[in-house]
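re: ur question from the group chat, yeah i did fold both. here u go
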Amino acid sequence: MMDESFLDGEHALFLEQLYEQYQQDPASIDPQWQAYFQRLDATSVSHKPSSSGNGKVLAQRSEQLHVSRLINAYRYLGHLEANTNPLGDYAYTVGVPQLMLEHHGLENVDPDTVFDPGTFNIIAKPTLGNIVHALRETYVRTIGFEYMHILDVQEKRWLQKRIEPEMGRGKLTHPERRKILEQLTAAEGFEQYLHRRYVGQKRFGLEGGESLIPLLQTLIHEGGKQGLQEIVIGMAHRGRLNVLTNVLCKPAGDLFGEFEGKIDETYTGDVKYHKGFSCDVSTEGGPMHLVLAFNPSHLEIVSPVMEGSVRARQDRREDKDGDQVLGISIHGDAAFAGQGVVMETFNMAQTRGYRTRGTIHIVINNQIGFTTSTVSDSRSTYYPTDVAKMINAPIFHVNGDDPEAVVYVTQVALEYRQLFQKDVVIDLVCYRRLGHNEADEPNMTQPVMYSIIRSLPSTRAKYALRLAEAGVVSEGGAKGLIDAYRTKLSNGGITCCNSQTRTGLPAELQTHWKVYVGQPWRQHIDTTCTAERIQSISARWISNIPADFVVHPRVLKVLEARAAMGRGEQLADWGFGENLAYATLVEEGFEVRLSGQDCGRGTFSHRHAVLHHQQRREQWIPLQHTADFQAKFTVIDSVLSEEAVLAFEYGYATAEPDTLVIWEAQFGDFVNGAQVVIDQFISSGEQKWQRLCGLVMFLPHGLEGQGPEHSSARLERFVQLAAQENMHICIPSNPAQVFHMLRRQMMRKYRKPLIVFTPKSLLRHPLAVSPLEDFTLGQFEVVLDDVDITDVDAKEQVKRVILCSGKVFYDLLEERRKQALTDTAIIRLEQLYPFPAQELVDVMEYYPNVKTVIWCQEEPVNQGAWNGIKHRFEAYDYTEVVCVSRPAMAAPAVGSLYMHQRQQQALVREALGLNGD
């Protein structure tokens, strides 16, 4: 028998055309279609036995198709007419002609006529009247279901079977309804209490959006029943204090202390509505660990940070289906539509390296931005949520003044996410009772909207009346909830409806950051590796490749050369040193996660961490096969994003101290696209929120005649941000240095961001190599003394010292050797921050007769390291340090290779004191 799922109306036009063809010549269509239309004719006649005549039968055949189109119209367009707006017709709610019987020629059809509803899940007898009633109850009440854009038919059918039989509403018991009222009472009472106690202070209250609290409580407790054990929430500031207190059980007294300025002076700190929190709560399914991520005012930037934290927790649990850890992202309507990082984050949702098995997105839809006067000024889309359609996410628009509808769509959203492991959006349509903040006067820019808002009773007041009319609570009982909550709040204790528990995360799933707190950056750590171990690892890189795996000939030569380097037969290059660091770390139990655009191969074809079969779509990752027992090595060629991907990796690193997390910019210049993450999280997260993070950033850097856009990773910005030992800034100049640096990053009991300015041309420079003994001996040297001037007598002859970092060292070295200069020493600063003051003094003491000290950089004088480190030299006793560089420029570099070479030669000669020749 033919599958009749097409009767949902999606194919109505096709059916009409096919049916007309059938009427003209039944034999001209497929026999299965002939049988279907014959059956349809018989059904139409049986529904109306009193009717006779071919004209009546034909009319009923056409009516059946029009009913299918009507059903389809409600599924597609019902959300446009749904009563989702608590402000009435002020914003979007429109009359949709396609939802009218007249549009489909059905206005004169007897309502008692029975039709085949197709896939429409109606419980009552499918008469026209019952079908229309069920459609309107399901699709145009206080929930607007927007899901027909989804390409996967299975997902659409599931949603229809989930919502249509219940006509878009749940069945709540009296205790459940009283619980919702209790949660709304807490949400409203919290804001009113703060408004009276801390007059004029900003809190970015939740007034008008109080249904967010029962929404989150539903996710927590329904999620607990379904097996979830951790939830990570990312949200901006509106309603944040309410969520902290009424959902995450932050003691009210702690919050009051923040209002009153009682903070830990050890750190810079941050405003109260940017802070995060974590707790363990009890649910029917067991303990639940809740986390609210710290974040700044940069609106949507917390979304990918939260995703990274979720992924780290899922990886730790080996939660491959997302059954145990859920991410919740709470957005503002204007920001959701306006911030590009939202799109970037959605684009990562189903990718291998970044998927978190579905995020529940909640849009607190105030129907306004900051003080935007009209919707047309804030977005070009009809809904603020339209961007979510790019990943076929279902979107549920719900009236925030109907808390039962809010709870219902939340349940549906959670079930969808758990089943399909995909993102889902809840558009909580509400309003902002006060201004953007409590000192703002919204009537200046929104007089019409706020004349409506002022006349509205609160969500809690409406719901209390509704329950009183239904006999669920008495007027006195509803008032008693207000008094009880106010008393709890005044006592300064825990006010939320969740009961706290101390049996949250099992010990093996907890992260232990305390061992890294307050540690000095100078720690003696043995980062060496024996020659035998190096040889074994480098040999395995080739020997473990499957016999039938066809490697590119040039890549095979690289691997063969690395094996020779491991045997000490060749000097090690950069790729060898870097890969050896990863191999040794995973052998020692540290996981490695490396991501970035083209980082598997390496932008400059030096890494080859991923091998590609030359005849089949297969990959081989040698670093996953370096030992019989090793930690996980993950390498991801990321989506073409800097901001969201770096934020994701930051979030991952803040949740996982035992994983070496590295983000690599394709070119260092591209880090510009992630500047918000650097400014607001990486450089200042510890001082603002006491959040440690061991994230590593690889930024290819060096002026090599490739123009303004492929030269500079903006070193000057990082040295400017460096303070209070917030990060490490390193410019390693040889393979052994990068080996020891990466191992030091994990082996120390110390976790700070590590910013590494990596080379491009040095990846294959004949001088940028290391002998095997440099890996078996030594450590990461923050200052490297001159490589040629080694004995005491020679050092005493030196009159000029050049200090430098990075690629320019090799230009200086080659020119000095060419000129056979013996009175000039070149010292490398491999770590610019924390500045290695004592180590530099120790090296400079080898040169007692110095008359001139130069800081040489290839960047323009207004860029590069100079302005960020020149004050470091002022404390030393030796002569004044003079900068030699390119002149100040607006762009990082010239666009002409010829001009670049002339400039480079001139600054090298000036630094060496050769300009007078």
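okk and heres the other one u asked abt
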Amino acid sequence: MRIVLLVFLWFNFFGAALNGQTQLPIKREIDKLTTQATKLRESGNFEKSLLISRIALRKSIVIHDNVLIAENYNNVAANYNDLVEFDKAIFYYNKALIYANFTENDTIKQRINNNLGNMYCFEKKKYEKGILYYRKALEYSKKITDSSQMAFTNLNIAWAFFDIGKFKEGRENLKMINAYYKKHANNSILVVLNMLNGMYFNYKNEDVKAEFYFKEAIRLGKKLNAKSDLSFSHLEFSKFLLQRKDYKRAYENLDLYTKLNDEIYADEKLEKANVEGINFELDEYKRTIDKIENEKDLQYQSLKKSRIIVLLFIIAIFVLLLFLNSLIKNNRFRLKSNADLMLANEELIVANKKAQESAILKTQFVSTISHELRTPLYGVVGITDLLLEEHKELASSPHLNSLKFSARYLLSLVNDILQINKIEENKIVLDNLTFNLTDELNMVKNSLSFIAKKNNNKVYVHVDQLIPENLIGDKLRFAQILMNLISNALKFTKNGDVHLIANQLKEVAGIHTIEIKIKDNGIGIAPLDQDKIFDKFVQVGRKEVDYQGTGLGLSIVKRLLELFGSDIAVESELGRGTTFTFVVDFEYSATKTNEIISNIQVDLTSSQVFKVLVVEDNHINQLITKKTIEKNNYSCIVVDDGFQALEILKTEEFDIILMDINMPLMNGFETTRRIRQEGIETPIIALTAFDKNEITDEAIMAGMNDIIVKPFESVQLFKIINCLILKTKSVV
């Protein structure tokens, strides 16, 4: 019996070993795939490059070749770098460096360190960290005596120093590159080299030489078809021209830079490559899962052998230990059950902790990304408005109008994401404001006239005569619901009509129940899709036409209506149009309406010239805020940080202080605390890109009087300024 069992086990093991044996990939084949993926990436075909990199990486892992693994991770990271996915690029460059450090190959180590230097200097703007990677790359270049790689790295170091205005520190690196080019004519660095010489002579105020080198960089970039280097040359040349107040040519070069970037990062390529990038990440997850499954198989085999041994032992002493065997089995079952329960409990605790951490990280991410987007948007929107006001001849410029529309659209996207986040965290409380329903509906209609004209649509407003003139409720949230629904109707309707209908269903004890319908004759929604449209990030009807949007609008509508204690219904038929219907309750009370109106703060204007101090570190924001204030005939002084603000307040008095929050050296909260400690009672308004609800408590504790979120309307700013100044003067 034992002999038969042993023979069976031996054949089973030997057969499994034979079945698991597969033909290993050839290193030469992997090299060929890696080279092909690199060429595809350099030509801009990111989709195929990522696909082939996946295949090459799988084969490299099978043969355990760390050099090839590092090469392919480096190529994947380079693809993500070109696709502007910088965090993913850094992640995969670091993975490449881990495998490269397992080898003696200094060439691949040099390249990866150089690439990480590029990421931190030019994408993350962490120049100190990036230059450390460049210096490591130089050390490896010296080991392999590769003068061309040393030239490239010196080129990057010079560029990094010049980018942050440290021309003295980068001067020696530029000299080395110029000396190298005289000995070795290398077209791959020629365009950037001329651009850097232009930047250096611009710093030296040698305008003729600077312009010559910029023009030479642009000429060579066109000749060599080096689109990326050419785009940067146009950008730096535009900066040079802007300093020389040659605004026309500066604008032309900036426009060329934008167009080249659009060509390099075409939407279709990015979308296809994004799909392939997701597939690559799925492969990474699959490899992790396979590893876990292999470990489980080994554990299973080990457990299986142990069971066989136990079984043979039990058979040998069955008669003597029958009762003991029963006790052992019961004890093992109990211990295993307890262990499983303890393990499950530990996993639940870990999962709960991770869920809480994820929620915190999500909130922090939304806050950070909104701040990072709103800050440049303030500059874009502000400069666009200033250009339109100061140069009336540009009012019909399609480029300027497109820029303004794109900035407003991006701001709307940020607000949508924040809105969803606030609703999910139950941070929204409905307000009670008095409003005229007819005026509100017409305001929404007029706000969306741009989309209506674009699609050649007409919007009709129908209001039931039974509805009172003034209602009480949260008109801002109500307007947001209407804006989302009507903009959707206009977007999915061409050459048609959109009807906005308000009917009173009933009135009980001053509460008016009003039914709102938004009806269009657009493309309609398929029955299968009607249950999906209120989910987040879901869009339907995109098969033939690319409708812009985030897929958040209807989700926000549904959640806002839940705050009103209501729901929304949809009726639609493909090709026949769509009707959205919801019911809301508003209060009508003449007494309450008069109380609300009497409590509204009136924007009292004054002929007096007020003196305003602006504390702001961003030079573009300084320009916009100063122009906006002076346009209203106010006196304005701008300082760069909190320390300068404290100094100037020792010698001068101001009527109002506009304080940025996120500043280097000393932030806005700490600056305000120190101003109050000095006994200065001048009203302080926080101008910030952070969400107002996130900083209100800290702003009040610091001693601030009000908060305005950038970008803002100038009317809103001056209303708050006048109110605070007049309130302060009346107290005095």
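fwiw on the second one: The chain has a mean pLDDT of 79. The domain at 433-599 is CATH 3.30.565.10 (Heat Shock Protein 90). idk if thats what u expected
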